[in-house]
Amino acid sequence: QDVKTENRLTPKNALERQLSFEKKVGRKAEAIVSYDRLVDEQIENGVQFKERVSESIGKEYVEETIEAAKYLCSQRNRLKGRKLILSCQGSSANQYMECLKAMLDIASPEDIIGFGGFCILSKSVKYETEFYEVVNKGFPMIHDRGIDRVHIFGMGVFRVLVQTDIYARMNGIDCSYDTSSPELNSVFGKSFNPV
After folding, report:
1. Which residues of 99-132 are buried (b: 16+ CB within 10 A; e: fewer)?
2. What percentage of the chain carries pLDDT values higher than 90?
3. Which of 53, 64, 176, 61 is nearest to 113 (CA)?
4. CB under 8 Å to 28, separation ≥6 — which residues?
5. How far apart are CA 78 and CA 72, in angstroms?
6. Is residue 31 a contact partner of residue 84, using CB atoms and an 8 Å limit?
7. CA nearest neighbour of 36 among 118, 128, 127
8. Is there a contact between 97 and 137 (Cβ–Cβ < 8 Å)?
9. Is 42 in a helix, a strand, or coil?
10. pTM score, whole prediction
11. Hey, is 50 helix, strand or coil?
């Protein structure tokens, strides 16, 4: 992702950057993620902060996100041996669902659907409620398209991860997650306790 900058690459250049990174580390990636535009990151006076963008700006970001996923899908043959992760975004549950529907229109059963834009979930009950709404509506749609894997980006609220895993299992979906929450919290003297 491009953070701490308003500069964006083209979808083509974003893919080339990922492939260059593969060469640099000498290992083929398991998956390549579409170049989504984050709805929960803003920059003001050169300082990045976590806050959801407005619905009108979110609409532009979703359109960019969909176009980038379309480009990635157009490179499917070139990327053989790697999964494609089609990452969704949205400033509201409705906008998110529109993005998800667009992703499902271009997805293949071997793809992974990515859920971005919820790393700020812990900042508001509203975001958590929207996340559950998206998951409750979205997981059955994903399953109906023959896709059996979802990845949740950057969200580390344990109770939400547990609930998400339950929804995933109910819909025959394997769910993976990434978060820096345990590491960041440990720096501040907190420890993880699932109870």
Report:
1. bbebbbebbeeebbbbbbbbbbbeeeeebbebbb
2. 63
3. 176
4. 22, 81, 82
5. 10
6. yes
7. 118
8. yes
9. strand
10. 0.88
11. strand
